[in-house]
Design a protein that fits this description.
Length: about 300
Amino acid sequence: MSFITILLPIFFVFGIGFVSQKYLSLDTKNLSRMAIYVMVPFLVFRTFYEQSINSTYGLLTLYMIGLCLIIILLVTILSKVYRFTEPERCGLVLSSAFMNNGNYGTPLAFFLFGAAGLEIAIVLMVIQQLLMSTLGVFYAAKGSAQQNGVKAALQAVKRMPMVYGAMGGIAFQLLHVPISKTFMQAIDFIADAAIPFIMLTLGMQLANISIKAIDWKKLYTSLSLKLIASPMIAALLVLPMPLDDMTKQIMIIMAATPTAANTTMYAIQFQTEPQNVSSATLISTIMSIVTLPVVIYLAM
């Protein structure tokens, strides 16, 4: 029951964003850009500036890449079995291989483990954003009529400010660049506002999703991979790693978070199965109320 009490405040904030969008019809695109391009980079900078760089970063990177590639391989196999077209396969990759560890997983880790958990979650968020900005954009573009995946992915990486925030934080730490207390307080103000803001933004994004015609075969496949197979694969990858228990638990729990909201934007931008990807994002978020407490209980 304690896991439910942890999820309730998170979904309460999502719900506030959802209801606000229904009544106020705010410009979620610009609000999302505000979060991604202004607030989150400061949060990422602070984390990498204050954390010591060690071998854990390399293991987290290998884990994230490995998990993503295994899910893509499973999608490819299932696509052959179900005889999905290439656009359908690419849409299934978008709705299955990328977790929402930004809007959802990062605050969840903070509620579960406090500041120490938040630091690990932010590192995973940066790696995930890099994967979505490369592999995610590649498959979104590959499933469209344009099929300019590599070029689009490279352009997307250049526009990811949180990557520059991470690079800046690492550089400042390694070069021992001092930051005054007053200036650090200003960074803290923006960084601390990032988590509640991105949670509200996710609720608003979900309010904009309309489900018209659901392809149930694709939806079942996506939900099974994202909410069930992904945390199981994550556990197999994580258990033999020389990491502390809390880090392993966060990695497994993150893998069980719903479909990333950004993949919906990519699917719409490139017209790669946008309806199916949007449906997976919304329904996987709703279903996570049931599936995530189970994963949290087993992981912890």
